[in-house]
């Protein structure tokens, strides 16, 4: 099936630049909201699930990663269909409003069920917005090379969202006691309860997520609709989207392979990268720092160790996001020059398969300091794990950008949102994110029979080993599936 895109390159006007800026902010905000759990999960569970044993905590940490993604993916499938039925711009506007409000409200959560509901609403907005934004951009810039660059470079700003959330988390970790305590409004406290720790880092990190949404809410409703979609709609030639058509002989292989491969890409992120916060205690670098804060007061010692864990989690997350940013830019450059989509994907997939399992399975427990950087008068350790997670981030996040470039080229206009949604939401957000729960459960199986003298260290080591095994398995499956990935059909030229 030939693509609906044409080859007419268009000069960039002020409105085009405004569209690109808003798209970049939107992708950044998506990732900002998506990656928050990578930093706040441990602290959030400590406050909302106090005194729970390790098995219950492990189970909940998997659920908090997966259930919201399950909800987002399921509703996102409907959102993709509505994007094709009602238009790209309208769905973009409603999805942004939803996840901005839900993200802000989740900072006031007083229980795990309350947080879980709000997190589900947040991820519903994110999942719908991503699909609508990709289809919208691809159709606003129909010429092949221009489209590849637009999708590649605007998606690269997703990693700025990741860097921003890491920076925000570190900032609030340092200055949480200086900020005003959050309080539940009185008219809601009787029904929802009161906020126990209004200075918590995780609460302020969630609240800050609404800031990038403000320009999107104010400006994006006034942006143009996709011209391709609008023209077909006005002419009465726009076919009604159909999920069944995704499994027609012409599209069946595309739908199945992209859905499963998208799941594998997300499996690396959620089964490994986002679990680093639960591995920190197994690192020798952490243990050295933890020994320095031991006091006679157990509560004080625990609080200081928790602060060290948050600090290290934020710094490893920053290293990973810097790698991811570079990976997205590399993908944007290579997408124009490497014709074969299989080869383009394998440039990142194969090295990731060789490196990522080792970084988690071995690198965590053998993490050592390489050297220290003096930034602003404060020495910061750079370790082997910083280097490893940097490259894992580069190789994994580049694959996410690949799917954003690839998917619009393999579906016709009336199925573009629906097809992208099947891969991104069914594959990535439902199947792929379930590997967060898989890693937690595998870690539990590894812990059977453990009676360690230092339970926190052994529990963290089990998480690292489980992540290494899960990441290795999903990457191997993704590599094998890449041999079946369809090459997009030649695009129609402007006539």
Describe the secondary-structure layout.
Elements: H1 14-48, H2 54-86, H3 88-106, H4 112-140, H5 144-156, H6 158-175, H7 186-192, H8 201-208, H9 213-219, H10 227-235, H11 252-271, H12 284-292, H13 298-337, H14 341-363, E1 369-375, E2 378-383, H15 384-406, H16 416-432, H17 434-447, H18 455-481
Antiparallel strand pairs: 1-2
Helix pairs in contact: 1-2, 1-4, 1-5, 1-6, 1-8, 1-9, 1-13, 2-3, 2-4, 2-16, 2-17, 3-4, 3-8, 3-9, 4-5, 4-16, 5-13, 5-15, 6-8, 6-13, 11-15, 11-16, 11-17, 11-18, 13-15, 14-15, 14-18, 17-18
**How would a textbook summarize the main sheet?**
2 strands, antiparallel
Domain count: the total is 1
The rough form would be described as globular
Question: Helix count, per DSSP?
Answer: 18
Q: So, CATH architecture? A: Up-down Bundle
* Radius of gyration from CA coordinates: 22 Å
What top-tier CATH class fits best? Mainly Alpha
Strand order of the largest sheet: 1-2
Reading the helices and strands in chain order gives HHHHHHHHHHHHHHEEHHHH
Helices and strands: which structural class?
mainly alpha
Estimate percent helicity: over 70%
CATH superfamily: MFS general substrate transporter like domains
Query: Which regions are unreliable across 5 or more consecutive residues at pLDDT < 50?
Result: none
- CA-to-CA gap between the ends? 18 Å
- How many beta-strand elements? 2
How would you describe what is shown here?
The protein has 495 residues and is mostly helical. It has a single domain, classed as Up-down Bundle (Growth Hormone, Chain: A), CATH 1.20.1250. The chain has a two-stranded antiparallel ribbon. The longest helix is centred in the middle third of the chain and has 40 residues. The radius of gyration is 22 Å and the shape is globular. The chain starts with 13 loop residues before the first helix and ends in a 14-residue tail after the last helix.
């Amino acid at each position: 099936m030939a693509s609906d895109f044409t080859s007419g390159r268009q000069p960039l006007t002020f409105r085009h630049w405004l569209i690109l800026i808003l798209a970049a902010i939107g992708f950044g905000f998506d990732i900002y909201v998506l990656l928050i759990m990578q930093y706040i999960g441990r602290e959030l569970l400590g406050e909302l699930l106090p005194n729970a044993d390790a098995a219950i905590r492990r189970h909940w940490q998997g659920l908090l990663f997966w259930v919201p993604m399950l909800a987002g993916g399921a509703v996102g499938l409907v959102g993709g269909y509505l994007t094709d039925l009602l238009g790209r711009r309208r769905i973009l506007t409603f999805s942004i409003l939803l996840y901005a409000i839900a993200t802000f409200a989740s900072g006031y959560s007083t229980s795990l069920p309350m947080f879980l509901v709000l997190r589900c609403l947040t991820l519903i907005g994110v999942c719908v917005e991503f699909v609508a934004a990709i289809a919208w951009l691809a159709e606003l810039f129909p010429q092949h090379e221009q489209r590849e660059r637009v999708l590649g470079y605007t998606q690269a700003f997703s990693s700025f969202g990741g860097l921003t959330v890491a920076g925000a988390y570190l900032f609030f970790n340092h200055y949480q006691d200086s900020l005003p305590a959050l309080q539940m409004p009185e008219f809601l406290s009787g029904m929802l309860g009161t906020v126990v720790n209004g200075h918590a880092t995780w609460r302020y990190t969630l609240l800050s997520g609404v800031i990038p949404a403000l320009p999107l809410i104010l400006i994006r409703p006034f942006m143009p609709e996709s011209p391709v979609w609008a023209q077909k709609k006005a002419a009465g030639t726009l076919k009604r989207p159909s999920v069944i058509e995704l499994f027609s002989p012409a599209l069946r292989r595309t739908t199945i392979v992209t859905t499963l491969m998208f799941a594998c890409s997300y499996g690396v992120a959620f089964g490994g990268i986002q679990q680093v916060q639960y591995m920190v205690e197994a690192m020798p670098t952490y243990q050295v720092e933890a020994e320095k804060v031991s006091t006679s007061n157990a509560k004080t010692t625990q609080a200081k160790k928790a602060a060290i864990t948050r600090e290290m989690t934020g710094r490893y997350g920053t290293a990973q996001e810097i790698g991811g940013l570079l990976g997205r830019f590399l993908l944007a450059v290579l997408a124009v020059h490497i014709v074969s989509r299989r080869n383009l994907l394998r440039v990142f997939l194969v090295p990731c398969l060789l490196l990522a399992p080792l970084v988690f399975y071995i690198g965590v427990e053998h993490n050592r300091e390489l050297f220290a950087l003096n930034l602003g008068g404060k020495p910061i350790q750079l370790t082997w794990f910083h280097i490893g997670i940097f490259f894992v981030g580069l190789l994994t996040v580049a694959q996410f950008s690949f799917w954003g470039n690839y998917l619009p080229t393999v579906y016709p206009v009336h199925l573009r949102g629906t097809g992208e949604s099947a891969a991104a939401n069914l594959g990535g957000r439902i199947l792929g994110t379930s590997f967060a729960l898989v890693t937690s459960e595998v870690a539990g199986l590894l812990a059977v029979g453990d009676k360690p003298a230092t339970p926190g260290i052994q529990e963290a080591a089990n998480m690292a080993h489980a992540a290494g095994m899960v990441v290795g398995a999903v990457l191997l499956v993704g590599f094998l599936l890449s041999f079946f990935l369809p090459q997009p059909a030649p695009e129609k030229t402007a006539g």
